[in-house]
Specification:
Blueprint: H1 3-19, H2 27-30, H3 34-50, E1 55-61, H4 65-71, E2 77-82, E3 86-87, E4 92-93, E5 102-111, H5 122-128, E6 129-139, H6 150-155, E7 162-165, E8 181-186, E9 189-195, H7 203-216, E10 226-228, E11 236-237, E12 243-249, E13 252-258
Parallel strand pairs: 1-10, 3-7, 4-13
Antiparallel strand pairs: 1-2, 5-6, 5-10, 5-11, 6-7, 8-9, 8-12, 12-13
Length: about 270
């Protein structure tokens, strides 16, 4: 894999994001090389940071067997979360802010401590988690028609879009993460069912995988970071005017709507 092909893949995805027009997959440039795909992601992350965006956490993708089956992949991945990706509970997201959006119900974790050890234990992870809350992630793809393989989605910041965190926020005490029951409604009608066990058996397991992976890459999770667990059930396509509500039994509720604004900018 050459530096030229990695840079070309990063430029293709960056142009798609900038212009709001999905592009061809990048696997023609990087194949299915996961290391190369992450290098593409990191190049565009650096580009965004230099442009003034602020990193606030990370998202885990492809943790649900249902989503893996939808996309034809068999392992998780991760991407970064920027501050301008977060919307408030019940807020409207301009449709132009999104590309080929689909909604997922997830668990949001907020860390109270840095996680520096590459061999962090499950107990240490629990101690590092400040609180959890229900979340919806609106995933999107810069790749035309969601024609992705795992290298495409990794390169594309794990097909990120935006997210919203609901309430109430809870300490882990008494929360059965594996036993959470989820219903994702679109315009008041149930559109996706799932639960905590659909996310690598337990959303905390997904976060443990992420913490170890990031520490091994010398980019550890830090206190204050938001971590999105990955989907608790199948993705739901979203169109302008949709109202999406995730009800996660044992955790809480969160809602977001898709607007028809002509601008991609968040309302002032």
């Amino acid at each position: 894999m050459t530096a030229h092909s990695i840079q070309a893949a990063a430029d293709r995805l960056a142009a798609a994001a900038r212009d709001g027009r999905p592009c061809e997959p990048v696997r023609d440039l990087i194949g299915l090389d996961l290391d190369a795909a992450y290098q593409v992601q990191f190049l565009n992350t650096r580009r965004d940071l230099e442009a003034g965006r602020r990193l606030v956490g990370r998202k885990i993708g492809l943790t649900s067997k249902a989503v893996q089956q939808q996309l034809g992949v068999h392992q998780p991945d991760f991407g970064v979360l920027f501050a301008d990706m977060e919307y408030g509970d019940g807020e409207e997201v301009p449709f132009a802010r999104l590309l080929q959006p689909k909604a997922e119900a997830e668990v949001a974790f907020v860390l109270g401590r840095d996680i520096l050890a590459r061999d962090v234990t499950p107990t240490e992870l629990v101690r590092a988690i400040d609180f959890v809350a229900p979340a919806i992630e609106i995933v999107g793809s810069r790749v035309q028609n969601w024609d992705i393989r795992i290298s495409d989605t990794i390169a594309d910041n794990a097909s990120s879009g935006c997210y919203v965190i609901g309430g109430p926020v809870r300490r882990l005490d008494g929360v059965d993460l594996a036993g959470l029951a989820m219903v994702l409604e679109r315009n008041g009608t149930a559109a996706s069912f799932g639960g905590g066990a659909a996310c690598l058996g337990n959303p905390a397991t997904a976060v443990l995988w992420l913490a170890r992976t990031c520490a091994a890459l010398d980019m550890p999770l830090k206190a204050g970071d938001v971590v999105l667990s990955g989907a608790l059930g199948p993705m739901v396509p979203a169109v302008p005017g949709d109202v999406l509500t995730a009800r996660i039994g044992g955790l809480g509720t969160v809602k977001i709507s898709i607007g028809t604004h002509s601008t991609a900018e968040k309302d002032a």
